[in-house]
Amino acid sequence: MSAFSKYRHAFLVGLQSNLVYRWNFAIRAAFSLFHLVVIFVLWGAAFQGKTQIGSFDLGQTMTYFIMILMLQFFIGAFSEDYQISEEIRNGLINQFLLKPINYFLYRISIFCAARLVSGLLALIPLALILPLLSHHLTLPWDPWRLALGLPAMAMSALIQFTIAYCFGLLTFWFLEIQSFIILSFAIETLLGGQVFPLDLMPSWLFEISKYLPYYYQMYFPVSIFTGRLNDPMQALAGLGIQAFWVVVLLGCANLLWKRGLRRHTAVGG
Amino acid sequence: MKLLGYIRLWLACARYSVMRTMMFRFDTLMWALVELFWMSVNILTIEVIYSHTDSIAGWNEYEMLLLVGTAMIMQRLFMGFFWSNLFELGRNVRTGHFDFFLAQPGNPLFMVSTRKLDIDGLANVFVAASVVVFAAHKLDLHPGFLDIALYVVLLAIGLVIHYSTMVLVVSLTFWIVKTEGLEGTYFTMYEFSRLPRQAFKGVNNFVFVYALPVVIVSNAPARTLLHGPQPDLMLWLFGAAAAWFSLAVFVFNRGLRRYASASS
Description:
The structure holds 2 protein chains of 2 kinds.
Chain A: H1 3-20, H2 22-46, H3 58-75, H4 80-89, H5 94-98, H6 103-133, H7 143-169, H8 178-191, H9 203-209, H10 219-226, H11 232-263
Helix pairs in contact in A: 1-6, 2-3, 3-6, 3-10, 4-7, 7-10, 7-11
Chain B: H1 3-23, H2 25-50, H3 61-95, H4 99-102, H5 108-113, H6 119-138, H7 145-171, H8 185-190, H9 202-211, H10 216-227, H11 231-258
Helix pairs in contact in B: 2-3, 2-6, 3-6, 3-7, 3-10, 7-10, 7-11, 10-11
């Protein structure tokens, strides 16, 4: 079996199993919708008597948050860390050690399938509420945004997945990793720009954040798409830093995997 | 069982929880950090927005901080006293372990709700309280003993509302077995309690301020501390707590009747 077709099968299995968990998807979508209401109420009130906050108007701010929410369904890693942790803990991982399958590639194939399903499903409720939102949305349509935004989005997905993968691998050392995951989730949510647009922070903090991996796991592609980043050269430079972080994180994942396996003991007959 | 018996039972559970915490010190520390960090995220959001505007729905920065602090105190109290108990209730009903609670000599709702205390959640109540104290200091508020007592009473009533809504959510497990993930409703709903009531308009005002108690629960105590006793808000909060608690008990008991164990 060629390497490609191996992981294609993993991808297809991932597709099927994710279509089964529609209930989980529905709950997540409902939570996201309520979260969007909180954002509308809060920012709507903050914009009262003001036309601009941080040189963006209410429409642009809402577009930013809606885009974040959408992209989460396409590129966000939400339970991959738990799944990997679970596979290590209950020994399911042992079968991969005996077969010519790369565990990282196997998991990422499933991740891609899962996000394809959740992303496409998320388009349905979005299409339904679009008439309500359309007067809030202002998307700039320059061709370069798509040309640079899509690769940025792909690398964001890779960063998100690899961080989750690394946290999952911590199970080799710690029995319970939930607290690590939620702590890291808080940092990622904040510095990824999901709580507020990062450009609203004091400028020195914003400059620092541009060198951290979190900036590239959500804020970066969203700012390209929604017009918070308007200089193609700057976006190109951003892609460079993003690629650097992808390499670093893949290196970490590889190191953790090798070190972790040394501690791992497979029991059973 | 008499009231005194319940109190003794609760104290025994509390003692057991403290012992457990001492056994898993690293874990407790991690969880306390997690909560601390999430609280900082909420406060940072306020700071960032107020660095660009002076008022949100008529609330200035420190008034807003006091509101967020109030919402956080209540959420930490709920997390400390009830969260893991109610979270496990859903799981136990699904797996059939719930039988264990039914076999105990006491009110089932009391037994499931008070089994564990999370010390880490309770520790962060002090952090949240210091946010309120800081905001009150910045606002130059000088609440008297009675004002503070009233604030504490309103917090306790608010805690009843938090508890009741979560009991309602997990009671759904009696009807729909597949409710994993539904517990997250709690966090989603109480995101609203960090917002000032005046920010809600139209449909949102109807749903989140009037129909659901998620906004009033924090706004009533915060307003009381800011502007002195507000009889209408107090009455509203008390009425909401009574109504939601009754509904929760009713639905839980209805669910109990449907519960048919899961063991073989």
